[in-house]
Amino acid sequence: MLTLVISLTALMLAYQSTLRSMVSTWSNSETYTHGFLILPLTAYLIWKRREIFANLHPRPDFWAVTGMLLAGLAWIIADLAEIQVIQQFFLVVQVILTIWAILGRKFVREMAFPLAFLFFSVPFGEFLIPGLVRFTADFTVGMIQLTGIPIYRDGNTFSLPTGNWSVAEACSGIRYLIASVTLGSLYAYLCYQSCWMRIAFIGFSLALPILANGLRAVMIVMIGHFSGMKLSVGIDHLIYGWLFFGIVMLFMFWIGSFWRDARAVDPDRPIQPGKVPPSPKDQWFVLAALLSLGSAAIWPVQASRMAFAQASPGPSREIRLPESSGEWRRVRTEGPRDWVPDYQGADREITASYSGSAGKPVRLLLYYYKNQEQGRELINSNNVVVRTGDKVWRLLEVSRIGVKLSDRSLPVNQWRLGSNRSHLLVWEWYWVGGDFAANDFLAKLLEAKAKLLGRNTDSAAIIVSVEYQDTVTLAADVLRRFVEEMNPSIEANLRLAARE
Second label for 245, Cα 20 to 30 Å away, from 159, 346, 351, 458? Predict the structure, then answer.
């Protein structure tokens, strides 16, 4: 046990940057504050089975060292791509493999769920938010239409005769979903013995909060509508939501109690001792600890060396945008002054406007990143086209499309924004080491690939926008013609800046 405690402490010190990122997320995000409870709950679940562990005999398993090497390799790839959630995931994997290497597979088999429960400490699930927002909007509008109340929808925003509503990220239900699955998994383990019953209840805890969040949104809108927008707004909005979620959780546990198995997780389950194998000598435990720790610690050291070797000064060449190309001429019109994307830590920020035969000017923004690091990186959840709660512009819809150009199909993220006076169509895509991407995960993989191959990792976000009033089709055609003409020149300038 002393060897195990020392090994886990050393592992946390070696990966302290990843551990700090997890704790920081638990502290700063209300969605993941449950992370502070995961370790104490895991310790309790293991302690609950102490009688079983007392009858087992620890034996080092050196096969787990191979797993440590593979987990460390996955961690350094995620580090190169700067994907924190993957790094955090494989840190938990290494904790489990360290226990396996020192105590042996029998111990890991008996504490399989408590160790798997550690994965709930990883701040995971933000990629689900856009899909949950769309489902909530679809469900809410559909249910209100069934009541016969007039409703007009524009993306994730809809209007009733009494007022306007918008399904924002806070309405996605991601907090309910994560809390429900965490509690549901714990309840299934403690109250059921059958593996299938546990899986079924976890599935139930996954589906129920998604449906309940849709009902919550309908309830809040209906209360606001029938009260003349006097109730269910402001802080009432949040209070009603959490009260409703508490009722849903009680309902979930009440349903689960009908199939509860009293024999579940019985710490006094007899163990057939059989013939007790000879206990390994102490040096074998120490050797397993040294090998597992060495297999894990080489990766943070290598990551630091690679980061130092690839560091280079910022772009020395001023990135110049073309004055004209085809029908497009650079003009002084700046576009909507009350809207600008929020990209942080860029080495260069460039903006320009162009006018063509369509009349409406197209605005081009470019954010160039040279030496990326945490907080100063292209792909970051803090870099957004429009902030939630913006006082002027609201998000109507976001989607990923392929723009057909003469020589390629360019993937872009398409954003539709709305204000009280007009609408804005925005296209956003990334240039990563010479390749184009719109998917955040693919952009991270391209960055990791470039680092592993020793290539240039300079990256940029390219954003174009145009105002429109009636139909988005004409605006999309304007942006397509603009990108067709201007993209080759933009790409050439980015390559020059990266080369220097």
Answer: 159
